[in-house]
Amino acid sequence: MDAAKRISAIVADSDYDPNSMPVDRARAYIRAFLAPVSAVERLHLRAALGRVLAAEIRSLLNVPAHDNSAMDGYAVRFADLKPDAESTLRIAGVSLAGKPFQGRAGAGEAVRIMTGGVMPGGYDTVIMQERARAADGKVTLPGGQQKGQNVRYAGADIQAGQVVFKPGEIVRPAELGMIASLGIGEVSVYRRLRVAFFSTGDELVPIGGTLESGEIYDSNRYTIYGMLMRLGVEAIDMGLIRDDPAAIESAFAQAAQAADVVITSGGVSVGEADFVKQLLAKLGDVLFWKIAMKPGRPLAYGKIGQAHFFGLPGNPVSAMVTFYQFVREALLVLMGVADPHPLPLLKAVCTSAIKKAPGRTEFQRGVLSADVDGHWTVRVTGDQSSGILSSMSQANCFIVLPDAQGNTPAGATVDVQVLEGLV
Ligand code: AMP
Ligand code: MG
User: Which residues form ligand 1's pocket by a CB distance below 6 Å?
Assistant: First the structure.
């Protein structure tokens, strides 16, 4: 079934209440329509940072390639040591990182070895230098050593032939290093997702313009730009569009042509939605929801041609919260991420009392900090109105209050979602 038919089926679903859509349910509906981009490009390793792997990465090597020492000290055969007494062995040579010992060490001999130095053949144990006494070409080592101690074995990190990364993994700094450690300098990644976005609202003025009475500067185009850039997509800013059907229609048509995803802010709340609704019914198939959440009640999702469409509420905090709770994960799936992890919910003691009606999920803006004993506590940032963008700026977390929860007294344990890593 194509997306349009499936969306129509959702609208016909008797169990579906667009006026009180639980957060999880809306997320699951959206998820059902998402298929990742398929085009792939080859990039130099460093250029792949933040991109999503499109092919598995298999190691042709053992990492490390050789058994080597984890310490500066002396390599020996364990069998040459007296178990409970000192042993004195002749020093046959030196093995440095990158400069292995070239000779042959015989029985009863030790090799001076540095961290990363290759273990001489037949040697199995390293004694750290702090425990050794060297003099006159000999070294005296204490008893009580363990066979195999301080040795890093070939292939301990990665074995030759092993699949190290599967398609759908994001390349982070550790992956860059891992791939480099395999000697691989080029990788296949999905092409960048293209996301077009614009603001709607006659009251909005672009920065640089002068405010007349009742006008405000367009800030959503900046928060949305920022959130998109952090995800590593290609962001296409289509500017500020008047609340005028012809202008909005041509903006939608253009955006859907240019991008994989179209994001707008404003114009989906009651009163405004009607003309946008009619327009979108003409251009595509879009669901209009009132999500059972605060802030961020109105949300539209659907398809315009091949493009996915997210209509975010206009209120600046609502636009950010709905982006994080719905759009972020959807974009990760579209970018090719195989399994976007749900954002972790951590527990913290909330020092503020919070008023809340059951029946909706709330995302209060919070400041999480460690108290003198190192326990995490959280407080609300103050005014939680959906227009107070400074509440997002002061916050370092969302306090997530689930549907069923009512008023929360000070001192209660709450769930928090840390913004660091999210933003
Ligand atoms: P709307 O969803 O269009 O009804 O807008 C709700 C509120 O958000 C109104 O107060 C708008 O002025 C405000 N708003 C809408 N779009 C933006 C924007 N791009 N930047 C800042 N505020 C906005
Ligand atoms: Mg508006």
Answer: 199, 201, 203-204, 216, 218-221, 265-267, 269, 272, 313-316
